[in-house]
Structures are given as C-alpha cells and as structure tokens.
C-alpha cells in the first residue's frame, strides 16, 4: 500500500514538475500570462546579464547561488546590441498589456516601466554620445571601487572569486576599449579636461606598488576580517599580486595608451551642443533626468530666480549675526568661508574627527524621526571616506545602497580631499541629504517594499530620488536639527548650490558657456571651495541634465506637500504624506503627483 501511495505521489510530483517547467519555459520565451510575471522575467533577464549587479543586490546568495561573484559584466559592443534589442522587445511586450485588464497597482507599475523603457528606447540613437570613461566614473575607477566596497569575502572561495575577477579585468578593459574606439571612428570626443584627468588618475594607479594598491589592500583586509586560515591568506595574497601585475596593470596600460593617442585630437571643453544632434540629445537628457517637459530656457530662468531668493535669505541671516553684507553676497559668503573657526584641522586627525562627527549626526537624527516618519528602513547606514585614489576628482559625497540580504549596510561616502570643502556648518545638511532622512531613507525603504514588483524596488528616477534628498534637508530644518544660524546657512547654501546647477547645466549644454564661465558663475554665487566647484562643473560636462534633477524634484515634492496641507487642513499628517512619497518607490514626478492627489481624495472621502 505504501509503495502504491509513493508511486502515485511520485507520478503527481512528476506531472507538477512537467507542468511547472512548461509554464516557466513559456513565461521565459513568450509573453508572460500576466504583467507581474513580465516584470519578474524582464528584471531577472537583465540581472542575469550583470554579475556585478547580482553581487551588489545579493538576492541569490541566500539560496546558495554564488557563481556570478567570480565574473564581471560584459562591456562589449555586441553585448550592448543585445541589451538594446532586449529592452526594445520588452517595451513592445509591455505596451501589449491592455490598461483595462490591469489592477490599479499593476497599471501604476506599467506606467512607471513605460516611462523607464521608453526613455531607453527613445535614446538609442544617442547610444555613443555619453563618455563611458571620465573623471567621475568608468571602468578605471569603478572596478577598484566595486571590488573594495561591494565584493564580499566570508570564505576562501569568496577570496578566490575576488582573484578570478582580477584576472577577468583584461577582457573587461578590452571591451570598454572597443566602445571607445567606436566613438573615435564617429568623431565623438570627451572634453580636454577629461582626457587629462583620466590619464593622471590611471598613471597614478599603475604607479602604486602592487602591495599598496587598493585592490590588494582591500583583499587583505577582507580576508583578515573573515579570519581565513593564515596559509590560505598567504597563498591568495600571492595570487592576487600576480593578477595585479600580470593582468590588471597591463589592462590599465592599454587604456592609458588609448587616451594618450586621443589627447592630440581633443582641443577644448564643450557641452552637449557640440555633439552630433547635441541639442536634441540634451533635451532628451533633461526629460529623462527631470521626468518633465521643461525646456532648457525655462529651467535656466527658474534657476536664476531661485539663486536670487536664496542668496537674500542667507544675507539676512549673516546680517543678523553681525557680518558686513554691504559688499553683496559673494563678498559676505567668501569672508565667512575664510574664517578658520568653521573648519577641522587639515590633518589625519582632523579628517578622523570629521568622520566621527558624521557618525554622531546620524545617531542624533535617528533618535528624532518618530514625529515625522511612520516607516523606518530596516538597513543601517555607515559613514566612510571616499577612497583616496579617486577623491581628487570625486564629488563631495555620495551614497551606496545596502545589500538586500542584509550583509552590507548603506554607506555615506564623504570626500575629505580638501578640508575647506567640509565646513562645519555644512556637515549637518550633507548628512541629512546622503544618509538620514535623505538617500539612505528613500532607497533602503524602497528596497523594503516587498509588495512592489522587484524592478520598482531598485530603479532610480533622478528627479524623485535627488528631489527627495534635497527635500530631506529642509525637513531636518523643520525637525529643529539646524537651530544654529550657521547650520541653517549651510542648508540654504546647499539649496543654493542646486539652484545654481539649474543655471550652469543649461548654460554649458544649451547656451554654450565655457568651462571657465561656468566655474566663475558657481564660485561667485555659492561660496563653495574652488576644488568643489571645479569638480562639480566638470561633472556637469560628462552628465548632461542630471544636475537639474535635484531642485526640480524638490520643488515638486514641496508643491505636492503644500497642496496636501491646504486641502486637508487640520487632518494633514506629515507622517502619512511621507509614507505616500516613500513607500511606493521611485517614479516620474507626474505619477507621484497622481498618488498624492489620490491620497488627498481618500482622506477627504
């Protein structure tokens, strides 16, 4: 009897496997039967093509799948062709799902995906206009940063995977070179400063003795922290050195040779307008980054008005604090910025104090969230220094998301290259922007939303995410965390900086400003350290449109909050409003407005 039952059970199990396999095969190769299966299939296909993304989000490791941790992304032109074709096919399939057949939640997901994929499909004609190797990002600094910050080592096999990735760098760099040579054929060249600074960065990298290279130091630190056996650590260290000397440095050498050959062909620093179909490219970039149809001229005009408004507020505070403001904004803010009382010492000890202060500020704000936020992210956030090998050209700060399996926290990276770029009165606002309640809050909460399709837990829309981080700076002020007038100047100066971005980004890419004109305008109107200003302006040259997303996004969120406060009156709850904005993931601003209006209508009913 038992044998008969087992046979029947085995037969049923086989049938289930067969039916399940056929269903999965149909879902994988044909149009999925519902839109959520389509989202899952498309996201999985994209992720499986990116070992580096898989290592970043760590969704496969908990179920024992780790093979991707020994591989690097395929950067070849053929891979790019396949990716573009894949996204075009996905876009066509997405549009085939009829709106009337979808639930309200699924329809929102479809509209978000349409915006995302539509922008990629529309932008295919400009595929080679961005510069994939520049002073901010690219394989030359992205690979070492990825290995240091993202590749985890908990076992000997993890360390062996690390070395496998070192040995794969030669292929990856050659694939990147293929794309650079294609741009050379098309006559698409980066600004002169990009060539100069990338060469300086790479030459410094290969001039570092292997034992002192970040790739070796990071591996040694990871193995020591994982407490691997001493004999394995010694063996793996030798293998890593061989990979660095035999594969990594020669790969950099080939990239260096390309940029040395490129140098004589580049003779100026020009914005997007100088590229083939540059004006159309820039307008699409603005649409992508702001998720609006704002014209360059409109954004420029708004920026000028906001610059004047914020500067007036800063001058009023300075005057109240006894500063001479008769010479205007530039003179007053420069005088304040030169006062040594606002800076830590330009030393290793001073930089350690800065990091300790950032940690203390995160702890302080974390204890005051309850009246303002109903939802708190599960993942913690830490502070670290921007790796020294790239800090000279890196932005003042940036944030990296936590791993989804909880094995890596969110990290707020602070650039400590120039001590004058970290005035004490700006540290609170930078903390609130990058960590809590800014980027870490928004991105970690987005990751936590298990009821959303997986792609919505990962995707970024710059106007939404950067708009939230800038809005978070204002919320921190409303929370009473910026009671010192100088800290409030730091907040206003940060907002002014984003308003100035509206002016200089459109100035560079639409109005044909030179690099020097843009630097002079930002220096005169922000009071920022010159090193920061130069890094920022050069960033805008290689990322057209992105710098406008911060202020555009913040203004929209403030507009929506004011609408909710006006419509709901005493029934308005800031915690509920923040939940509406944060727990639905990143999205275009027009869809965010729809959600807020739905929230208002529900509260009024």
Give a quick set of tags describing it.
605 residues, mainly alpha, 4 domains, three-stranded mixed beta sheet, 23 helices, 3 strands, 64% helix, globular
Outline of this structure?
With 605 residues, the protein is an all-alpha fold.
Distance between the termini: 63 Å
* Count of structural domains: 4
**Computed Rg:** 26 Å
The class by helix and strand makeup works out as mainly alpha
What oligomeric state best describes the polypeptide chains here? single chain
Strand content: under 5%
- Beta strands, count: 3
User: How would you characterize the largest beta sheet?
Assistant: 3 strands, mixed
User: Order of strands in the sheet with the most strands?
Assistant: 1-3-2
Outline type: globular
Uncertain parts: 12-29
Fraction of helical residues: 55-70%
Kindly state the mean pLDDT as a whole number? 92
Order of helices and strands: HHHHHHHHHHHHHHEEEHHHHHHHHH
